[in-house]
User: Fold these one by one.
Assistant:
Number 1:
Amino acid sequence: MATVSVIDELKKAQILELLEQGKRIDGRALDEPRKILIEVNAIPKANGSAKVRLGDTEVLCGVKIQPDRPFPDMGDKGLFMCTAELLPLSHSTVETGPPRDDVIELARVVDRGIRESHMVDVAQLVIEKDKSVVGVFADIVSLDYDGNLFDACSYAATAALLTSKTPTWEMIDDKPTVVEGGEKQLPITTIPVSVTMGKIGNHIVVDPNGDEWDSMSARVTITTDSDGNICALQKGGSDGFTQEEINQCGDLSIKIGAKIRTQLKSTQEEYQKNG
Amino acid sequence: MGGRDATMVLLDENGIRCDGRKIDEPRKIVIKAGGLKNADGSAYIEFGDNKILVGVFGPRDVHPKHMSNTDTGILRVRYHMEPFSVDERKRPAPSRREIEISKVIKEALEPAVMLEKFPRTAVDVFIEVLQADGGTRCAALTAASVALADAGIPMRDMVAAIASGKVADTIVLDVNNEEDQAGQADMPIGYMPSLKKITLLQLDGVLTPEEYKKCVDVGVKGCEVVYELQKKALHDKYFGNRGD
């Protein structure tokens, strides 16, 4: 990791040179995300799941839903948590062991985007106030890597949640007990979509692939909701953005996000239609 | 998290906030450059009720050695909260939140520090939050810039930081702890005023596209105010009358 090969430097120069002509190394427009393939219910044992392929980046999200104790002073709300982990099989540089700071950031950014949009209506996930609530856990793992895990993880979690079914519980003898035939959709209020943009030279590119990811000096991930509002943002990388660039990225995230939301929505509708 | 007081008025009919401030008024900010004897550079900031101490060491040898880079120096940042800094005792080990904040502060400082002048070395920035009251990452980043300057490390600019946000449907400057818990959005911004570059930006909470742009604008203007206080702190130390 510490050594940078000559090929890498040449490739970076080529990426920048192409961008100066308004082109990208894989032929996409600057504001064009890669093709997204979504396979929902990939893990039928989970309450919801989705495998998402964004270009050659592939991630898998499984949702588990189970009774849990509420946080103290949050007894009238269920739990929602989203985690992300890089699997060693997804790239040669991924090592086992405690997560590095970039993986912790990835997990927290993906969690924040969904949490801040209030996608899962946790107020509806209470079994008995202050005693027992429903916990929704969306765990994401990487399978294959070619840049931009942020968006791949976000789409996988969103698609998995949109197609999740939750059992119903009631308190019997002070214990949460599953109600037969009480399976229903998760209460969903909005569809958050994250859009990650990289800065290479003075150019902003949407959904950077692996080579672009290694070439960019800074990035920003912006999550929008179904109303076209912005609900979360994270800047990263060791360079800055001008105020104009940040405004431009905001506009881009709304425009691109709307298209991706349409795809997520039709995936959900198709899945529900086919039972 | 939690502890929300539903009866608290966040913004009254005269546009006065729960702690008596106007919507574009930051909390009281006091910055002191220097203060630590052993550190190569240091700074102390009081940002409202936040109390944060920063010590900088370096450029110095890198340990472990494999982390060093032959092309450039590296910046390492540790943001850490004392167990007694918050209402409920915080476990002393670094939390995932602290690891993320360390990373975003590091990346916010990197564009400002001329690390390329010191290949194979490291500059270590140690941030200790002694008392926390909302907005620690901005206060910490502000103080860290002053500490780096105090250490005499060549810099392109200082990074000033403050949070803007949305409280009671209004865009306000410098979100405090109560407003962060009960408010609608919080946007920490780090900005290099001379270079006009945003180097730290985060957001949680829902904003319309117009509010988003306004929030960035309010934050950038706030950073310019903080910047003057940073310069004053350095000026007071190096050109002050007392000559300390």
Note: The longest strand of chain A covers residues 132-144.
Number 2:
Amino acid sequence: MKKLIISLLISFASTSVFAGSHSPCGVTSGSINILANEFTTYRIFMDEVKSCAGPDADFNVTHSVDHNKLQVAALSANPAEFSAKLVTNGSITPLMNDGLIRPLDDLVAKYGSNLNDNQKITIDGKIYAVAFMANAQHLWYRESILNDLGISVPSTYEEVIAAAEKIKAAGVMENPYAGAFKSGWNLGQEFVNMYLGHGGEFFKSGSAQPNVNNEKGVAALNVIKKLTELSNPDFLTQDTNAVKEEWESGNVALMHVWNSGAASLLDDEGDQNIKADTRLAPSPTVGGGDKPATTLWWDGIAIATNTSDENAEASFRALVGAASSTDLANNNPNATVWLIKGYTPGDTAGPVVDAASRGTTPYPSFPHMSLMHGALSTELVEFLQGNESAEKALADVEAAYIAKATEQGFL
Amino acid sequence: MPHRTFFWFILPTALAMILFIGLPIVSSFFQSLHIENEQVLMEVENCDPFGCTTNVRVDVEATEKIEAENPLGRFNGFGTYTDRNHLAFDEIREAWDNKTSIGEFKDTVLNLPFYKALLFTLTFCFAVTPPVIVLGFIVALSVNTLAKKLKGFIVFGTILPMIVTPLIGSLVLFWMIDSQGIIGASIQILFDDPNLSLKASSNLTWITLIIYGIWHNTPFAFVVFYAALQTVPQDPLEAAFIDGASRFERVRFIVIPHLYPVATFIMLICLMDNFRVFEPIIGFSAEGVAQSLSWMIYQDLRNENKMLFGSAGATSMLTILGIAFLLTPVLIRTWKEFKTER
């Protein structure tokens, strides 16, 4: 029944009137082929894109958690494998580095009259992407468990650790904390959060020289280590989706995952008692810092350079139709924090708005950041397993980064 | 076979091998000698929902211009081979000069990515191959004594692990050894330790991968041994039987010597296969604690958006050298056997 209502609402949304001279929806020529990450909010967004494209459109979408790894190769081909890509402030950089996405000013002028100005991602004066949602990782907690033990909602990581230790000591849960510590991109991201929370800078100012082997880096690693000791021993194999499963199984009382997780954690599937007990809280600060230890992200649409103008226009129309659909936003207010015009934030938007208002750093968009992230992905594991000191792990990160950045021509 | 006939016989194969194996290797080697052109960076103003900031980006036009002039990138000779992510000559020299004990030197070297991967690759190779040969032989002997009716069915069941795609096979096992999976939960009950996790420690992960490797490779050894068993001459076996030799003695003194060349062949193929171990690492999400040379190549080509062709090429070349080095003794042995048979 719920699905029926949603689909009715979506079809209603797609017929709503657009103020611009050109309505983006109802694509009849050109083919649309989109590459996107895989999580519930994107699925909701893509349903809207599909209905905006209309029944006559040649519409394809590929959802993959490996989208980051696929994108450069797929869009470098000419013609590109995909006509459009859902990007974030993290994944747009490699595409910009190689000139693989095109400026959208003309298309925005033609079809984007319903966009907010802050949706337009401008780089050097040109629009390269249109953002539709904001996202951040933040704290989630089980209210009844914290209440039973008289723990107040933690606002620093030191309090998170104390709370988790208390829950463990009380015998309520064996591994009360969870975070996406899977070795690879996720683990790198946890360090990015914690290092920025300590006020760290990844590169020496004005250069591509690494700058993580310092007191802040060591402090960040030590906090991560403490958190992993309170997590499931399999933490190195758990990505965000696995962590959400742990949560839904009732094994976890505190976790730090994406705001967009609300779309699947707070839906009507799974244990409703756990859902009713799930609360969202701002991302904690760490080590006496004033900024939350997290990063701000926007998610948006970008169009491939190496695709025909016809396909580019078709893809842009369908995507921007969804990215300016007020109904999409207001029918799914808790799926994420939409940036769409006319959106009334739902109950779950709080932590992201809080992060933004407290000056949280957006994910760094240096051209060489992905190499740093890659080095973090692989070199921190031994420290977390207790086989290496924090200083050694960070020295390894820098050395691995330098070798890669030299080969890529950044150093 | 006269040389002329042999030439025409081998020509199509040789051509295909040059085209599909030789040339790609040459091209990878060439690529491995080069690194990317210098990236031209410029300062730009970026505006997004969180505000406007000044940031650096790659100057695509300027970089493309350099790229057009120099499409292969900058020539780096063997620089990539000796850098920290490969053979790491400088780091090893430094570690040797600064060592306080051999143990410390060993730790430093095995902390370097290439040597870490090499250690796992070799451990995997040498831990998997002998059990595979022994198990394959035992299974072949057992199946060979079965009644004819049962044989076809049992043979099919036995080669199943080889038929299952490595990635799928390892994923299935990965879920089974989860602390909530059937194997993981049973082990926890067996050892009475609710925190025991096969995925958590590096030693247990290595053991899991090795057991998986044995499980996956044994059918191959079995099939080859089973076929070879059909060629064991019956006369000496019967004679030995009449002379009162036990089953063990017959196997030890007649069957094993007959199958010896086959065992060498299996060892050759197994070493070669296991040296390029890759899928189980992905399937078991074991990247954190177990990296192989093949995994390093994969990582270079899919490292968070940036493809490091030079680095991947260098690792590929080193892998080929590694396999050649590993197989030399076996090949020399085969060659000697071949000569004496002549």
Note: Chain A touches chain B through 68 residues (CB under 8 Å).
